[in-house]
Amino acid sequence: MLVECRNLKKSYGDRLILNIENLCIYDQDRIGIVGVNGAGKTTLLNLLSQKIEPDEGWVKLYGKCSFISQLEPPEEETIRQEMASKFKVSHTYLESMSGGEKTRFKLAASLSQNNAIIFADEPTLTLVPPVFQ
Predict the structure, then answer these.
(1) Rounded to whole angstroms, how far apart are CA atoms 16 and 76?
(2) How far apart are CA 57 and CA 105, in angstroms?
(3) Under 8 Å CB-to-CB from 28, ≥6 apart: which residues?
(4) Is residue 87 part of a domain?
(5) pTM value?
(6) Which of 5, 14, 39, 82 has the most CB atoms lying inside 10 A of its own CB?
């Protein structure tokens, strides 16, 4: 098991965004979260990755994780040349990169860390080289 949560609740103001009784994520699971804007997709990822705290309940991570967001800078500023080549990006993160290059850089950095789980908020998965799909 990589992630476990129980009785998870998160509200913004008087609006209940998430109410999850029980959720477990296991090794080799591949999960996609789909919903309309404002449904709580990013909130759920932030809770599961422990970037934010729930109003009620608890989340346990078993192992290290990385988090990819289109809106935030990468966790690492440089990656190995081998990964940069596979993802066709510079080995150093640059603000002048296109949006697609920034996303590919973040994916390469996350995959380089060999973490047990990667939380990706709105990644463009078509940009992942076939060797990683």
Answers:
(1) 34
(2) 34
(3) none
(4) yes
(5) 0.83
(6) 5
